[in-house]
Design a protein that fits this description.
Length: 93
């Protein structure tokens, strides 16, 4: 049985801030406010028609898990790139 590996950010201690940003972005996209990343993930899955539940999701297909993870991660990466470009632009002035 393979174990899920959680990727660590390059900056130690940044995981919490990244989770907060991701929750904020999903909240903006769905037009609702969420207290934490798990609530946002469950609601996003519901919007995408993926039967994600709290707790074990052993019966969830990889394709469905990828829909949720891709939507969440893709939005986060897009925002981080935009933030980096703005920072570079600001520093080059």
């Amino acid at each position: 049985m393979s174990r899920r590996r959680k990727r660590n950010p390059l900056v130690p201690g940044a995981r919490n801030q990244l989770d907060q940003l991701q929750t904020k972005l999903i909240s903006e996209d769905l037009g609702r406010s969420f207290d934490n990343k798990e609530e946002a993930k469950l609601e996003l899955a519901k919007e995408l028609g993926v039967p994600l539940q709290k707790g074990s999701n052993r019966d969830l297909r990889s394709e469905d898990a990828g829909k949720v993870g891709g939507a969440m991660g893709g939005r986060l990466v897009k925002e981080l790139i935009q933030m980096s470009l703005q920072s570079l632009e600001k520093n080059n002035r």
